[in-house]
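Slide 14.
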Amino acid sequence: MSGWRLVFVRDPERWGPEPERGVLGIQDLKAAVERVGLRPGDPVFVRPDFRVDPDLLDFVLSQSFRRLARSTRRNYATDIRLLLEWLWSRGLAWWQATEEDLDAYREFRCSSPLNPSRIGGDKWDREAAAFTLLYKWAKADPLPIDAGRREHRAANARQRNVQWLMPRTWRLWQDLGLRGLQVDGSRLHGWDGRTELRNTAFVQLQLSSGLRRQEGSGLLTFELPDQKLGRGCAWPMSAPRSAAARPPHTPARRTGTWPARNRRPPVAAAAAGAARSGRTPPRSGPPAPTETSASAPLQYYGYGRPVYGSAGREPPERRQASIGRSTA
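Slide 15: predicted structure.
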């Protein structure tokens, strides 16, 4: 038999046609997943006997796990699967593990010469947090691991790994890596600059605004700042990954690098061209947003109904955004 498997629920637009005989004996798998209560991005743990583990499914549906951000849920689930695999190879179920078993797993992950992919202290601290969440939910007594205890955390974990660049070095990095220029300023032979302006503008925007990568990549076209405040720009709306809105601020020159004609996502442009030529069917679902106003608020079509507002929406939700008139 194979080991533990981890499957993630797909986003609504990624569900393809199902075979007539169903999947694993289940007709209309998408409806079955919705009846269970799973949401897009939720993990499903499959045991070595190819059955969904009911206890871990309850853990995934629990409030302690569900309140985590989507990316955190994915990372925690990946860490837990590795622990399940290691315990299973030793004939143990996860709820049978003791503190000695978790200590042995920590040694294997962090310092054993038998492990060619050893991890650092900061990675172990994340795994310890995932295991602690699982065993606290299961009400294990005593806890085999507790990330709140100093002896269960790594002593060599680095809270920050910041490497500073001098302004001249930063400009040189942009020229070499983003603009295709050589050290002497000449154009690199064979450089494809089709996305040069887009990439440069994105990096400058991230650097100046302090947005996370997921936040910056989830920005919609009309959310690019255009309201000037002194020597900078204010955002018309905030796109934080956390629940608390934190409107960012960026210098005005960062938003003028990328011409408006290049702001249309290349993927969307390619899909529209393919639909016009008949190679692919037209895009289904809500139209792509282009602008917003008080009379046409932003709608997020998620889980079968429109949801208004944008603060705290994660990138997968923001990709389902469209413009519509409020009927509330």
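Speaker note: Confidence is low (pLDDT under 50) at residues 252-267, 283-309, 322-328.
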